[in-house]
Amino acid sequence: MSGIGSQPVVRVRGLGKTYGTRTAVDGVDFDILPGEIFALLGPNGAGKSTTIEILEGYRDRSAGQVEVLGIDPRNGDLDWKARIGIVLQSSGEQGSATVREQVAHFASFYPRPRDVDEVLEAVGLQDKARARIRSLSGGQRRRVDVALGIVGRPELLFLDEPTTGFDPEARRRFWDLIRSLKGEGTTILLTTHYLDEAAQLSDRAAVLTGGRISALGPVSSLGTPEQRTPFVRWRERGERREVRTATPAELVGTLVSRLGGEPEGLEVGAPSLEDIYLELVASASLLRTAAAQEGLA
Amino acid sequence: MTSTTTTPAPARPGEPAPLARMLRLGTIRAAYEVRLYFRQGDSVFFTFLFPVVMLAIFSVAFSDGQMAGGIRGDQDPISMAHAYLPGMVAAGLLLSGVQNLAVDIAMERGDGTLKRLAGSPLPVISYFLGKLGQVLVTSLLQLALLLTVAAVVFQVPLPTEPSRWLTFAWVYLLGIGTSAVLGIALSGLPRSGKSATAVIIPITLVLQFVSGVYVTFASLPEWLQNAASVLPLKWMAQGMRSVFLPDSFSATEQGGSWDLGTTALVLGVWLVLGVLGSRLAFRWIRKDT
């Protein structure tokens, strides 16, 4: 058994997927380590959902190797499915079941399910336990999806845009839930459009653009050094000024002495994941356009 | 910490054998499906109550009419409710099996229920055991209601001979089994959950008209009778007529007798075709669409 804990939970090498002539995923490599939260980011159509559905066993791949919990998802049997939890991007509900009935029903499929009432409390639906799923709001239904994904006590949890339709408070509570799952040792693969969510939760992230990984690493190290360079912003004679510098404190010091006091509207910070992400996506699409033009010429 | 949860090759202690687990989950699924079935107003009306409603309409509309058996049509006159009862019993089998399952599964495919189940460790056999259990329970309740209404409200005399009830039992089991597997096979036909009822209901409705459920089979043109004789519903209805109608009515059948042997044969063939069709048609999800 020794060393198994350090094996990646998910191992993806050269993953490719084509639909007819369209290439959705083109040579993707990454590992997800035990107990880590890994975020898969990227614009719509970049191949996030295709990738995650291949890992879940819903889709066949066209190329490459994939192992999830040591097993090729193509051959994933019931024992393998009992070890993963899936929250799909969109999922229909058996609307005439009550919340508690539905969660208890799914719990019965698994060998070591979580306590149903604890799950309902964790997703904040304890007051809706007896409500028909049909009568719930979109965000509440999404929480039922999450409850069904975690009730089997999965070792690996797939979360495909889990917080779509959540209000800010529900999103915060959801983040707490994800952190507590991580605390119990659950490995999590997350896709999201909310980059603050990825920054809050994930240990590492990959940015997928045009079916390829354009950046991969800890959230704090994504992007090029230039993209991560801190900024100093202030107002001077009514004009907004911004300087990118690796030594912002020094810059502020010289500003204070030059202006003879507190600069107006001073902001010092590092680019957010969102800023870096948008630059990555923009440069990737520029590269593709250039490559396409080269190919034509 | 995850290394401790990695399972060794032998089965987890306390985990029942695969077959026992399959049956246990099948029972859980059946109970869940039956509970939800009765919460859906449309399925309760169009599938569950439909034969009772139709029996009531025909019995009231033709309350002055009578039908009689024998070659010259002058023996054992019976009420219209009595004459329609076997057809309604057969229609109930068709609706509870074919229509109910074909629409139900197509909608589950459309709304993502199947996709979610496919990602869970629910064995596909347990899913089908649940569907068959739901069909069996709802159709038995439907029959009980239909026979009670016929006997109490419309004073239809029910058979007393055990041999007739024995025929009833096997025609019922063979009929409901055939209907259920054909329903599963037809569930692949609608391209979306929304179109399920629009695709399936016309099929079952036409089948009921050409199979002598609403219209006396003998009054259909001969070519249509021959065509319908290939299909299973005609034989379910004929088998049920042999149970509920006086024997003199066998003379009005196409072959001049109840011909239960052919009923068993045709239903058996459709049962096998349905099982094969289900295997070909059913997928948890349509991959790569």
Description:
The complex is a heterodimer of chains A (297) and B (289). Chain A is an alpha/beta fold and 297 residues long. Chain A has a domain of 72 residues. Helix content of chain A is 35%, strand content 26%. In chain A, the strands form three sheets. A six-stranded mixed β-sheet of chain A has the order 5-6-7-3-8-9, sandwiched between helices. In chain A, strands 2-1-4 form a three-stranded antiparallel β-sheet, covered by helices on one side. In chain A, strand 10 and strand 11 form a beta hairpin. In chain A, helix 3 packs across helix 4. The longest helix of chain A is centred in the last third of the chain and has 24 residues. The model of chain A has no long low-confidence stretch (mean pLDDT 88). With 289 residues, chain B is mainly α. Chain B has one domain. In chain B, 65% of the residues lie in helices and 3% in strands. Chain B has ten helices and two strands. In chain B, strands 1-2 form a two-stranded antiparallel ribbon. Chain B is elongated and about 65 Å long. The N terminus of chain B is likely disordered. Chains A and B meet through helix 2 and helix 3 of A and helix 1 and helix 4 of B.
